[in-house]
Design goal:
The complex is a heterodimer of chains A (165) and B (386). Chain A contains two helices and eleven strands. With 165 residues, chain A is α+β, with helices and mostly antiparallel strands. Chain A is elongated. The N and C termini of chain A lie far apart (60 Å). Chain B is built from 13 helices and two strands, in the order H-H-H-H-H-H-H-E-E-H-H-H-H-H-H. In chain B, strand 1 and strand 2 form a beta hairpin. The two termini of chain B are 41 Å apart. The chains are: A alpha+beta (165), B mainly alpha (386). The interface between A and B is small, with 9 and 10 residues.
Chain lengths: 165, 386
């Protein structure tokens, strides 16, 4: 091909490619969640109001949050627990690590049972039996005095992550 | 350096550009439909707040869709009048004219139903007025109106069915008819299937003769069927996106930025510019002559103008396919038609005055008359061996 013509062709191709790239960016950009969804990106919890040795339920980013508050009668687990004041807390995202259903809390057995495929978790979110192998996820949190801010990674959260490797 | 492109007429690429624009409308429509809520209480907010301010690039989709509808009708009228001018509805091209008019009806419906969706003041009253028109259909008008509205006035039910018509029914009809209109399916020069006493019967007759046309010389495919349409589309879309980014409010009526209020009709209500020529005759016959009601004359004018365009191949009795400037009588007929359409459009946008009403009545009468005199005019023209 004539070199002048080749230059023009490749220039046009580059131009069209650039246009295509940004067009695709726009297409996928408008499939992103609207910024309003970020309004739920933080949940503030006053830990003094939770009753000890049981599980409380909250919501963060439209996901359920399980918080298991326990006193010194239950041993401290450095991989799952965080100490706030006189109590220890296990903070978990209440979404089954198998296929995303919400496990139910069984009061007598002190277990979480996922209704979809019978996955069992203990109070600290460890996988016991059924199709589950991974423990319940720990959301990023930040302990500020007696207050707990879910959605922001603080010092205690970082230590937990390190303990879990 | 040669800049002139041989055998390139932008008028002949309006159809191609419309197909490209229709595809763009489908894409932008899909992204709008993802965030639109077809509910009378939520529609306005979903369009004017969620899409325009919250969805990433939602404003862009909406402006593309609005500007696209306006420029689509602009192209549609150029295309229709251009084909009328060139006589492309004769000698085996008649089927294209009928397809095209079916497409025109579909686009009128899709344009109207789409305009109602944002549920602003203009949307609501457009829906109210146009569905009220149906009540004038002789015989079962009231029942047809109630069937279309699905309620005793325009309401949530109406909005939802207009939404379904706008995003599913009409696009499917348009795509189907378009395949015929753009020669994707060729009905002429194909085998004809019929049933006789012995069963399925196959004949090799062409549907109609193309012998009147001289055989066309072959042209290189890539430059003629790819590059030229691409150039036409590029020129158009450069203009189109200039309008989208710099003049988006050409296509977005400020009155429609107020939420619909069923108890309060705005002082000035008018449709989009592409329906003005149809609404002006309805206003123009403003007095009754004895038993003849003015309102009915306006309706008749509307029906005659549209039916006249639809059945134009039957009305034009001159069998010669030549462009209008080679036809001594038809050229006058054509330009009179264009002047009538433009004048009615302009009058429809202006506030109503007595002078405007009289002018509108004149133009509406001429518009109606044109379709009545065309058979006689074209026969006379043919007899004169022009």
């Amino acid at each position: 091909m004539d070199p002048k013509r080749r230059l023009v062709n490749y220039s046009l191709l580059a131009l069209a490619g650039t246009g295509g790239y940004f067009t695709a960016g726009t297409l996928f950009g408008s499939l992103e969640p609207p910024k309003k969804a970020l309004l739920e990106a933080a949940t503030l919890i006053d830990t003094t109001t939770l009753s000890p040795n049981t599980v409380s339920f909250f919501s963060w980013l439209k996901k359920p949050i399980f918080i298991y508050k326990h006193d010194a009668s239950v041993p401290f687990d450095p991989k799952r627990d965080v100490a706030i004041g006189a109590y220890h807390y296990t903070i978990m995202v209440g979404i089954c690590t198998h296929l995303g259903c919400v496990p139910k809390y069984e009061e007598e057995a002190k277990e979480f049972v996922c209704p979809c495929h019978q996955g069992y978790f203990d109070l600290r979110g460890y996988a016991l039996r059924g199709p589950v192998s991974k423990p319940l996820e720990i959301p990023p949190f930040d302990a500020q005095g007696e207050l707990l801010l879910i959605g922001q990674a603080g010092e205690a959260y970082m230590q937990l992550m390190e303990a879990n490797g | 350096m040669k800049w002139r492109i041989p055998n390139f007429n932008l008028l002949l690429y309006t159809g191609t550009i419309m197909v490209a624009l229709f595809i763009l409308m489908v894409i932008s429509g899909i992204f709008l439909a993802m965030h639109y809520k077809p509910d009378a209480a939520l529609a306005f907010e979903s369009v004017n707040t969620i899409i325009m301010h919250e969805v990433p690039y939602g404003w862009l989709w909406r402006k593309i869709h609005a500007m696209g509808s306006t420029l689509f009708f602009w192209l549609l009228y150029i295309h229709l009048l251009g084909m009328l001018y060139l006589g492309f509805y004769k000698h085996g091209k008649r089927i294209y004219w009928y397809n095209g008019m079916a497409l025109y009806v579909c686009f009128v419906i899709i344009g109207f139903t789409g305009y109602v969706l944002p549920m602003g003041q203009m949307s609501y009253w457009a829906a109210q007025v146009i569905t009220s028109l149906l009540a004038y259909i002789p015989g079962a008008g009231e029942d047809i109106m109630r069937l279309v509205r699905g309620d005793f006035a325009v309401s949530d039910v109406t909005l939802l069915r207009f939404y379904v018509v706008h995003i599913i029914v009409m696009p499917l009809c348009i795509i189907g008819i378009l395949l015929f209109h753009a020669d994707f399916f060729k009905w002429h020069a194909t085998t004809k299937l019929s049933f006789n006493r012995k069963g399925l019967h196959v004949t090799k007759e062409p549907r109609f003769s193309k012998s009147a046309l001289p055989p066309k010389e072959a042209k290189p495919f890539f430059s003629n069927a790819v590059l030229k349409p691409l150039l036409a589309c590029s020129v158009f879309f450069a203009f189109f996106f200039y309008c989208v980014f710099f003049h988006p409010y050409l296509a977005l009526d400020p009155l429609n930025m107020m939420p619909a209020d069923p108890t309060d009709t705005p002082a000035h209500i008018y449709p989009e510019w592409y329906f003005l020529w149809m609404l002006q005759p309805l206003k123009s016959f403003f007095f009754d002559i004895g038993p003849i009601k003015g309102a009915y004359v306006g309706m008749v004018c509307l029906v005659v103008a549209n039916a006249g365009l639809i059945f134009l191949p039957l009305l034009d009795k001159n069998p010669r396919r030549v462009p209008a400037h080679e036809r001594p009588y038809f050229r006058w007929w054509f330009w009179t038609l264009v002047v009538c359409l433009v004048a009615l459009t302009v009058l429809g946008k202006l506030p109503t005055t007595p002078a405007g009403l009289w002018l509108g009545m004149g133009f509406s009468t001429v518009l109606m008359g044109l379709f009545f005199i065309l058979p006689w005019l074209s026969r006379k023209e043919y007899d004169a061996k022009s």
